[in-house]
Amino acid sequence: MQSNVIAVLFALASALTIAWGTVIRHRIAEEAPGDGTTIRSAPIIAVISRPLWWAGTFAALAGYALQIAALGFGTLLVVQPVLVLSLMFTFPMSALYDGRRVSKAETFWSLVLTVAVAVLVVLGKPTPGLLEPPLNRWLPALAVGGVLLLFIDRLAYTRVRRQKALLLGMVTGGVMGYVAVLSKAFVDIFVHQGFVGILTSWESYALLGGAVLGTAVQQSSFNAGALRQSLPAMTVTEPIFAFALGYAVLGEKFAVSGISWTWMGLALLAMVVSTFALSRRGVG
């Protein structure tokens, strides 16, 4: 059943849950970074040994489950912009954790982000795409994106902490963009073919691998530097990858023409600018 209203509600719940999990996991990464001199003191081991990190991780998984539910009711081009609002939820949670007040600037950029997302969803009127995209649509997208993200990942490990966090944030966003598209394909397969379909489709296993990879790279980006350096990159890169893949692979489209494309472009630009502004102001 297609219902953009229900899809938006599930996506908002997903954004809120993901925001909480992000703040918890990053704070633990800051508090227990490890010195890396032994296996036990390696950053990733120091982090995952904390019970609260697992709570944050399960929150992220719950958020992802809500995202899957949202995709069951609406198109990728409806759900993905709404998920960007997770950043709007992240910075006040981070401020609360730090014991500081939300500034007027943060409130302003939150409103800009909300309006931008609303324009993309309401004015864009995204239309559904293919239920089962053929493999010849997937292969070029997987190959080109995989090479690009691998290059950025390797480049990140030649940079200082701040640049490394930014680049790994981009890789995380790119991987999660693929996860979003695979999630939509997964939902469509389940709705039309049931459990047999998802057990026999390559998309299910690619989705699982992508989710694990994305979580690992995301934690690496958290360990590499402040949240303000990695979060904007991953938050902006994910919908850009998802939009491109939604068009190229799933065949979803925005039902706009003429001058409406100008407003859509401005909304996308406002989303990018407000995302970076909020990240740099609202998180540590």
Automatic annotation (TrEMBL):
Would I find Membrane among this entry's keywords?
Answer: yes
Q: Does the keyword Lyase apply?
A: no
Could you list this entry's UniProt keywords, alphabetically sorted: Membrane, Transmembrane, Transmembrane helix
Output the PANTHER family linked to this UniProt entry.
Answer: CONSERVED INTEGRAL MEMBRANE ALANINE VALINE AND LEUCINE RICH PROTEIN-RELATED (PTHR40761)
The portions of this protein that span the membrane are 61-87, 108-126, 138-156, 165-183, 195-217, 229-249, 261-279
Name of the molecule in the record = DMT family transporter
Give the highest taxon in the source lineage. Answer: Bacteria
